[in-house]
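I hope you will forgive my troubling you with a question about protein structure. I should value your view on which stretches of the chain appear to form regular backbone elements. Here, with my thanks, is the record as I have it:
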Amino acid sequence: MPVTQRRTRKQLRHSVGLLLGALRRDTGQTESSPTETAPNAAKLIDSTLVFGADNEHRGRWVFALDSAGSQHVRRISASSRDERSLTASREFPSVPGSSWTYELWDADISPDDVHEFINQGISGVRRKGSIAVVDESVHTGGMINSFALSSEWIGVRELSWRSGYSGVSVADMDSPMTALSGNVTSNTDSADLREGSGAARLEIDAAASSGEVLGESIFSATEARGFDQLELWHKTNVATTSSNLAIQLQQGSSMHESLPLPAAEPDRWTYVSLEIAAPEKNDALDAIRLAVGSSDGGAVTTWLDDIKLVRANSEVWHRVPREFWRVDAAKRELTLTDDARLPYSRLRMTGVRSPALLSSDSDVCDVDAQYVINATAAGLLRSRSDRRSASRDGAMQQADLYEQLAQTQRLRMNTPANIRWVDD
């Protein structure tokens, strides 16, 4: 298996520290500190740390990772050769123990500054370093021709419509679901729908509890072993989480599978595709049920429409010519023109998103690691240079060198073509 060249924030930080000679200890292991108790714990003890004299580490930075995975950046106010300890200028929330690790950095380069310049470097290639994304959660229907773009998208490349697939419609929801609980009112909504002549509307009382089966739609026994996706329209009047509602696949008296419905925003129809875990068992499915999920979401009204079984990767997609759709950057929407005249079908949008900023050590950098390292080094060196000096000092000259290297690597990145940009 090939080794990925992508780097985590921790790896980038260490690379920058080694490049600048600012990282004095990269994976220090602490020992117990029995003489301290919270909240007055400020010492890190490490008998393997090299000490030449007392307080030789004063002013440096320590980046500590505690047993819970929380990170703490502190300035060192004192260090003891005999005790083999580093004393932080501000107490830690708990007593450092043998499960803690730490890094030791020079006084003029704070780990927090390293993280800031890493993210500044990533932000500097927002378009060049953009990442390809695909969204198949949109679908025509209900006379809707505008579709919201995800907040992370910065551009759209292509729009396609699904002209064919292997699947079968099992419940069109033109008739109401049969209520199976006294805590639900079931009817057909002939005004708010996405396909056919109606959508199932279920008004669920707050008294409904987790796992309670609410309604059912029965259909002819269907051989469904070849179908591993369940697709449907879904809407709620209030925000829900993925644990509030579930679709159950029923075969006779046996419930074969329970599929949690994704979190939903209020008053917004969403086309949902759910993965069926064990399709090989579904040789005669004959009902779809709606149930309360693992947690009760309180009173909620939900709509369901056009439930079908689909075989994944069986779709046939056709590209929509670019003259038949446009992007409204202000509204962050993709809109079909009046001439598009697409049939009722699922859509596939391909586009790009910004490279993600890094907020934790395990986050993986989306863009070229060497560019980020050089851009970060340049920013750090500029921040430590003497801005009041009449002549350019060494730090500024080194910053220029790393900036040139970063810009060379930046120029090698290809800005994606044929993108209709949403954000600058």
